[in-house]
Structures are given as C-alpha cells and as structure tokens.
C-alpha cells in the first residue's frame, strides 16, 4: 500500500510543527525574555488561520498566554519595589512554565486545549 498524504494532512503537519516551535520559543523565553516570545507570538498570529481541528485551540492558547503573561509581568514589575512584586514575578514565571508544559503535553498527545481562554492554567 502506498502512503498518500493529502494536502490537509500536510497543512496540519506544518502548522503542528510551527506550534511546537512556538511552545519551545515561549519556554526558552524564561531565560531570554524578549526575542523568543516576540518571534513566537508573531508566528502564532501568522499561522493561526491555517490551523485546523485541535491546533486552533493551541494557537488561541499561546496567543492568550502571551498577552496574559505580559499583563502579569508588567503588574509584577510595577510592584517589585515592594516585596509582593518579587513574589508575584516568581509566581508569573511558574505560571508561564506550567502553561507551556500543559500545552506541549496536550500537543504531544494530539489533544486540544480544553479551555484555551483560561487565565490560570
């Protein structure tokens, strides 16, 4: 039997590879905060319309993660002169890592993100 890859399967494969790359860039942004996350969110916006099925939820999830992460970081940095700001910044980093791990896990198991608009995890 011949393995025939349809155009739809090929497009899904490309968008799945892109979302993997975005998760990796986002995760790497915990070490180098600016460039990887900017590149990741640009790719997310560019490729989100090509995504089908479960991948749509992943694109929505990474785009929302970017904007919520920016908000959490700005609030934390604004409060850094106070002790609470440092604690919030650490919590924001932990939140970010958990979200990326959750997204990657779901993607590896070909699962959609159950609630991609969640502010928590």
- Largest sheet, if any? none
- Poorly predicted runs are 1-5
The quaternary state of the protein chains shown equals single chain
Number of helices: 4
Helix/strand order, N-terminal first: HHHH
Could you give the distance between the termini? 43 Å
Shape: elongated
Helix content: over 70%
Q: Please tell me the overall pLDDT.
A: 88
Q: What is the β-strand count?
A: 0
Please provide a brief summary of the model:
With 121 residues, the chain is mainly α. The protein is 71% helix and 0% strand.
Topology:
Blueprint lengths: L6 H22 L6 H13 L6 H25 L4 H26 L13
Give an overview of the whole structure.
The chain is mostly helical and 121 residues long. The protein is 71% helix and 0% strand. The chain has four helices and no strands. It has helices at residues 7-28, 35-47, 54-78, 83-108. Helix 1 runs antiparallel to helix 2 (35-47), helix 1 packs parallel to helix 3 and helix 3 (54-78) packs antiparallel against helix 4 (83-108). The longest helix is centred in the last third of the chain and has 26 residues, at 83-108. It is elongated, with a radius of gyration of 16 Å. The protein starts with 6 loop residues before the first helix and ends in a 13-residue tail after the last helix. The model is unreliable at 1-5 (pLDDT under 50).
